[in-house]
Amino acid sequence: MKTSRRLLPWLVALLLPMATATADETCNSPYLANLIKGQEDYLHVWTLGVPGLGDGADKLVTVDVNPRSAKYGKVIDVVSVGGRGEAHHMGFTDDRRYLWAGRLDDSKIFVFDVGTNPAKPKLVKTIVDLPEKSGWVGPHTFYPIPGRMLIGTLSNARDHGGATGLAVYNNKGDYVASHAIPTALPGAVKADGYGYDIAVHPNKNVMLTSSFTGHKNYMMDLGKLMADPAAMKNFGNTMVVWDFKAMKPMKVLDTPGAPLEIRWSLNEGDNWAITASALTSKLWLIKQDERGEWQARDVAPIGDPAKIPLPVDISIAANGKSLWVNTFMDGKTRLFDLTNPAAPKQVYEKVTGKQVNMVSQSWDGKRVYVTSSLLANWDKKGKDDEQFLKLFSWDGKELREQWKIDFTKEGLGRAHHMKFTAKPSGVAAISGPAIADRGAPAR
What we know:
Layout: H1 8-14, E1 42-48, E2 59-64, E3 74-80, E4 87-92, E5 98-103, E6 109-113, E7 122-127, H2 130-134, E8 136-145, E9 148-156, E10 165-170, E11 175-180, E12 198-201, E13 206-209, H3 215-218, H4 222-226, H5 229-232, E14 238-243, E15 248-254, E16 259-264, E17 272-277, E18 282-288, E19 294-301, E20 311-316, E21 322-327, E22 332-337, E23 345-351, E24 359-361, E25 367-371, E26 388-394, E27 399-406, E28 414-421
Antiparallel strand pairs: 1-2, 1-28, 2-3, 4-5, 5-6, 6-7, 8-9, 9-10, 10-11, 12-13, 13-14, 14-15, 16-17, 17-18, 18-19, 20-21, 21-22, 22-23, 24-25, 25-26, 26-27
Signal peptide: 1-23
Organism: Pseudoduganella armeniaca
Pathway: Organosulfur degradation
């Protein structure tokens, strides 16, 4: 496995102070520039191809989501990338001009130009060297840092198990470095080396990573997987606390049950993050104790854990006071009050589909988008295999469906990850850190 140590330019950039974000999705990296102010114009949906449906290939689907538009709630563009490789997650480069989208099966990464004309993204590069250069497979999280893309992966090329790591590419799409998630750490109760999400708190110089499972598990039929006791042991049960500037793991946290998405509170002065464990159906709080040590503890159940509702995605409010949680098996979208993050309280729930996965809210919290697909082999069968994108309005009391796009009826496939963009007149540059190597991907 090759690792470059020539990272000084972006490490210097990380030392500079960050600006406070004032708009956009709440899950984005704090290093993302050109943040949307107010109403988003477009929603991009990374979509899994289905054999015999349309062209059968994975694709980026763009939807007009501005209520002032004549095409509001309609698909306005589709970019097919060919083949099916388990399309999963996406992330913008730090300048927001390019959108990187990964596939968990073949580990290909597709780079789209969304800055020139966000209504019509253009595929400009396909990166195929992740396994060869890093040793990792299953690119999952695309997290922009100054001049670079930090990629969290789910598995490894050696045995397709859960031990994995992080890969660093520059904005041109060239490999820079890799960092293994620890399988052992002095003083750690246990360290499994599993990966999933990435979240950075710049003011604390802290990065958190969470854990899921390897290629052999996530490509297996869900029913067969859950009936296989040996396979069910191969899920991550930890989170790792890193020194971000040094990219050095400092502590392993015991968080049983596959902790997935990580969300830092964006409220100024807060020093905590929250995640949800899929298999144990709990919310976990990661916070410094009175000695400044990072600790993790489960603080609330999500539904009835005995029924394995399978929490899959979360979206925190911009003020850190509430959290949306989607649970796949029961098709519910739940809202938790985080006024006291050490004791979250569920205050609302609604069945939003027969199966639901991703949830993204606008910065003002008034719009909540939901998609349906988890993984091709984990989605439900028959009539319960709904594939959709839905927009709900939220007035503080009730989610009200505004429109729905049936991805099966439209011949598009399985709707998974979402990202917002805006017309050039709808964005405003935010003063951020000095950016090193802010190049566009090579064409």
